[in-house]
Amino acid sequence: MEKEKLRTIFNKRIKKLLIDAQAKDELFERFIELFNHGGFKCAYCNRRMGLKWGDNEISFTIDHVLARSRGGTDNIHNITFACQSCNSMKGDKDAGWFAANVNKSKVRKQKRELWKAIKKRKQDKRTREAFKDIFEMVNVKRENGSKKA
Ligand SMILES: [Zn+2]
Question: Which of 50, 75, 78, 83 shows the greatest Cβ crowding within 10 Å of its Cβ?
Answer without folding.
Answer: 83
